[in-house]
Amino acid sequence: MDNVLLARMLFGSSLIFHIIFATLGVGLTLMILIAEILRVVRKDNDYGILAKRWTKAVAILLGVAIPSGTIVAVMLALLWPGLIEVVGQVIALPFTLEIFAFFFEALFLSIYVYAASRLSSTMRIISVFFVALGATASAVLITNVQSWMNTPTGFSIVNGDITDVRPWEAVLNPAFGYTAIHVASSAYTATAFVVASYAAYQLLKPNLKQSEKTYHRKGLMMALIFGAITSLWTATNGHHSAVGLHNNVPVKLAAAEGLFETQSNAPLSIFGTPDPEANRVVGGIEVPGMLSYLATGSLDGVVVGLNEYPRDEWPPLFVHTLFNIMVGIGSALIALSFGALAYRIFFKKREYPNWVLIPLVASGPLAMLGIETGWIFACIGRQPWTIYGIQRTAEAATKSANLGTFFIIFISLYGFLLVVTALVMRYYFRRNPLIKEFESQTTTV
Amino acid sequence: MEANVAIVVIWLFLFLYALGGAIDFGAGFWSMFYFGRKDTTAASIANLYLNPSWKVTNVFLVLFVVALVGFFPHAAFALGSFMIVPVSFVLILLIIRSAFMVYSYSVQKYTKLFTYISGITGLLIPALMLSILPIIIGGFVEIVGGNHYILYDRLLSSPTLYAHIGFGLAAELFLSSLFLSDYAREAKAMETYEVYRKNAIILGPIMLSMAVAATMTLMPEAMWMVENMARQWHLFALSLVVFSIGYSALWWPSKKGRVGQPRVAVLFMVAQIGLASFAYGWAHMPYIVYPDLTIYEAVTNKQMYLSLLWGYAIGMAILVPLFYWFWRLFLKDKRYLTDKKVDDVR
């Protein structure tokens, strides 16, 4: 198999694996912070137990999140030396700063977990605040390089050499703002629904004690409110991202929407297959003028189509489907969280019936799928470029052999670790049931 | 000038990770070695250290990698082409080690199995990392059509590879024993202090002789390196003196009851590793990969160099007080060190 494709498969599968753990790490630490604050404000120890159990989940996840993050960092250098050669000259700064965000996260997490009994409530909240800050900051800083790869700025090229480097201009590249916000808010959203999904699953069980029901309901409500806010926020900044694509990387938007001809009054195609022969999306639903309206703010706005670009600069056309899955899941999550909250407000019932809980159970895996398709769209939608308009993926890749063997080893390892991690989670939380927490916590607060 | 400053920063990060990593992986090994022993708390002392620190130690590895490619981006192609095999194996061991170390605390039923998996994989990591040194010194890399390839048959049949691996193992076990002996004494676990002190006494001379063996076996492969090292003889001699003083401190009388001053020994050994690794690094100059890649060819541009330097300086200035607080909480605070019931959230 072709070496570039193998390098992409190896790196892509590592990212797909790592992003699960990274997303939950970013989202859960913020939810722990909120739970710790609620615990103090409401003087309700159930929130303390929520924080404690989520912290345990984070600790288990970190066993894989940290080394898989290390794998991604090292592989980026090994598999994409061409990219790194340019990155090291132009956009090395966010990687540097990100290290310090990691240090913050690691140091304060250990302090929060292992020194908790020696800290005051305020110091605990401050510690977990810095954990959450470090987690989100590292995600934002990594995304900074990713956004720069889409809209490279801050340097000039003279005779193939990079000169006149302006590091801060590279950091503040046009795509940075909306990309970083979208990454952070979507990570919060996905985590909220993973938490909601777990709580809903527990509430479906018969024979729960009243104290357990109350506890899981608090977890569910917190996740739903947090999820409703963040999912709506994600939709808003997702819209800004699409406008950003229209302004900065129009070919990516064209591929995402399956738009071939540059036109005003461009339709929004939902699902279907982009057909380059027919010059349109076949088998989808078309909303006339909607794409122009979304991208430019007016039905008459002109949206650039794929035909403006040579064929060898087109991203693979299946990114249209990835994009649709991402947007579809995002919309479903908004509907689900607002629907569930509305049910609670209008019917004034504390308990959800099963027909509400069952879709909520599905929301967690669905949200993760949304994250994955979003990231895959972001990376494959940039193809054939690693650095848009500057460097092709084939130029960036290592020429080293053996990649096929390592792809098989790593992907087996990832599959194995996913299974083991799930089993460890299940084992731990069965061995340490909620009932035990209620018993041991009555004396401590 | 820029290249020289940058390579010193890289050396500093590598030195920090070498120490931290050796103690971290070594402690994981000892936690396995003394697993289930009723007569000593050596395993729990090792875990007491590992629990809060392993994540922080891991960040130093990422720091080193990121700084290396940040300061020396033009080294990426050469390093990327032949490092992929040894480094991928390190990464595979690393993820198994970290995952199973964390899981061993969560799944009581399989604690023993998981501790063995993480202990053994962790033990091999520094050994494998050290095997990269002879590869980049030369003699084992062939360039065909602009690509670098490792000559595996030559490498695997060369004594210097095994001497380097042996040195990696000995250094890891010696430094972790020495550090844990001090840590155990801080925790007032005097029996455990004796256990680790004895380990350090045995392993110290082994580490030293493995270092000599690694250098000697390098002669047929990379005479240039050995000659350069000989030119740094005064630094190596000084490091030997520092080693001897530190080693002897294990017998110095102490007011705390038991013989030996492990804190002094640790500080001198840190200085010794610093001196020896600096001398080694100096002898390595100006090559990143001998003979075709020097630091001057690989270094980044002036603007990026300056902004990176500022970035590291400001970041470190913020972190140093935080590291101090961390040290106070987990390496000094008696409430942590002597708390038999370690919090079950870990």
Automatic annotation (TrEMBL), chain B:
<keyword id="KW-0472">Membrane</keyword>
<dbReference type="InterPro" id="IPR003317">
    <property type="entry name" value="Cyt-d_oxidase_su2"/>
</dbReference>
<feature type="transmembrane region" description="Helical">
    <location>
        <begin position="6"/>
        <end position="35"/>
    </location>
</feature>
<keyword id="KW-1003">Cell membrane</keyword>
<feature type="transmembrane region" description="Helical">
    <location>
        <begin position="161"/>
        <end position="180"/>
    </location>
</feature>
<feature type="transmembrane region" description="Helical">
    <location>
        <begin position="83"/>
        <end position="106"/>
    </location>
</feature>
<feature type="transmembrane region" description="Helical">
    <location>
        <begin position="303"/>
        <end position="327"/>
    </location>
</feature>
<protein>
    <submittedName>
        <fullName>Cytochrome d ubiquinol oxidase subunit II</fullName>
    </submittedName>
</protein>
<feature type="transmembrane region" description="Helical">
    <location>
        <begin position="264"/>
        <end position="283"/>
    </location>
</feature>
<keyword id="KW-0812">Transmembrane</keyword>
<feature type="transmembrane region" description="Helical">
    <location>
        <begin position="232"/>
        <end position="252"/>
    </location>
</feature>
<feature type="transmembrane region" description="Helical">
    <location>
        <begin position="113"/>
        <end position="141"/>
    </location>
</feature>
<feature type="transmembrane region" description="Helical">
    <location>
        <begin position="200"/>
        <end position="220"/>
    </location>
</feature>
<feature type="transmembrane region" description="Helical">
    <location>
        <begin position="56"/>
        <end position="77"/>
    </location>
</feature>
<keyword id="KW-1133">Transmembrane helix</keyword>
<comment type="similarity">
    <text>Belongs to the cytochrome ubiquinol oxidase subunit 2 family.</text>
</comment>
<dbReference type="Pfam" id="PF02322">
    <property type="entry name" value="Cyt_bd_oxida_II"/>
</dbReference>
